[in-house]
Design a protein that fits this description.
This protein is an all-alpha fold and 364 residues long. It has helices spanning 7-18, 28-36, 40-63, 70-78, 80-112, 119-134, 138-152, 154-158, 179-184, 186-193, 199-202, 212-237, 240-243, 249-255, 265-295, 302-314, 323-363. Helix 3 (40-63) crosses helix 10 and helix 3 (40-63) runs antiparallel to helix 12. It is globular, with a radius of gyration of 21 Å.
Length: 364
């Protein structure tokens, strides 16, 4: 039975999972300040523009093949074997993205909340809800994304309580670092916007495909607003040199908030933040499971999903990545992500236009 996604499911899911790299927003102000200083928020806007354009390109590609996922589309364009080979590359990228997000999540939780807990225990605790949601398919993932939006919408607003003893002059003069540092920092913002390439998977399940472009624009814009608001809050609360001293400036910003009825606010927010991180892990994991199932000719993705999650549970017994290893893995993911989300859609768009033009000429 075909599962259909409502337009609102896609919009919310893309905003909090498919579009935003939820693990990176905690360190985004630091990454931007290293190169562009307090002009880093400009790079976010430019990265938003680039991701918006590429998202619309993907929509145009899928409009010509509305009932096919990327795996079926590749076989149509490039033939059975080459298409499956390219599909396997996509599967590896999706599985790698989900695994990296999981490792980074466990690492952050161990640093900030429960230092002494074993990695495999956290892995098992996280795998249970991830499996329960992912096994249900796209519609359940979309519904979960709506729930995530409702239970985490207050977190960006909470940052307003940290805006005491701020210095707006830290932001001025705008453009003081010059054009080239701002442009070179766009790479960091692109990493944060990665995820929109999963429209290649989501589009066939949309019930109202005409609203896809509108959903893309809304989702990317919401992500951009959250990133800009969070980054500027860190820039005007901390000195420019101080931002780069923190690994996760957003968590340090939450630490300065003092409420009479609550302490250690960053731990509470980080606990809710897990929902958003799950909305990074689940779509990529579903993509990998769905892709493998389609490559081997199976309709049900749940058996493949169980195998992937079982491997995840076994992995902490053999490999526990350090902070530097996670950073290296993230750098590799960023490079492959740029190719999969930015270079690949442009190539596929041009190739698809030629493919459909030649086939139309052949028929006539």
């Amino acid at each position: 039975m075909e599962v259909r996604l409502l337009p609102s499911d896609c919009q919310i899911g893309k905003t909090y999972g498919f579009d935003s790299r939820c693990g990176s927003v905690l360190s985004l102000p630091r990454d931007l300040a290293k190169t562009a200083g307090t002009d880093g928020w400009i790079s976010i806007v430019l990265g938003w523009m680039a991701s918006m354009l590429l998202s619309l390109v993907i929509i145009r590609i899928m409009e010509k093949n509305p009932e096919h996922t990327i795996f079926e589309l590749l076989s149509t364009y490039f033939g059975k074997w080459l298409g499956k080979g390219l599909g396997a590359v996509w599967i590896m990228f999706a599985a790698y993205s989900a695994s990296l997000a999981m490792f980074a999540t466990i690492h952050i939780i161990k640093i900030w909340i429960v230092q002494d807990i074993r990695n495999y225990i956290l892995m098992i605790l996280f795998v249970i809800p991830i499996y329960m949601i992912t096994k249900q398919g796209i519609r359940m993932i979309g519904l979960f994304a709506e729930l995530v939006l409702m239970v985490t919408l207050w977190i960006p607003i909470l940052l307003l309580f940290a805006l005491k003893d701020i210095q707006w002059m830290y932001l001025f003069p705008i453009g003081k670092v010059g054009v080239f540092p701002i442009l070179s920092t766009i790479k960091s913002t692109i990493y944060s916007f990665l995820g929109f390439e999963l429209v290649f998977i989501l589009y066939p399940f949309l019930k109202d495909k005409k609203s896809a472009s509108k959903g893309i624009v809304i989702a990317n814009s919401l992500s951009m607003i959250v990133y800009v608001m969070t980054t500027i809050a860190c820039f005007i609360r901390f000195a420019p040199s101080e931002v780069t001293d923190y690994v996760y400036p957003v968590l340090n910003l939450l630490k300065v908030i003092r409420l009479p009825f609550m302490e250690r606010l960053e731990i509470i927010c980080l606990s809710f933040y897990l929902f958003m991180i799950f909305m990074t892990i689940i779509p990529y994991l579903y993509t990998a499971a769905l892709g493998i199932s389609q490559l081997i000719g199976k309709q049900d993705h749940r058996n493949v999903l169980r195998i992937l999650l079982f491997l995840w549970i076994l992995l902490p017994f053999f490999f526990i990545p350090t902070s530097s290893q996670i950073t290296q893995m993230a750098n590799l993911w960023g490079i492959t992500g740029v190719y999969s989300a930015f270079v690949f859609p442009i190539f596929l768009w041009i190739y698809g236009w030629i493919f459909h033009f030649v086939r139309k000429e052949a028929k006539s």
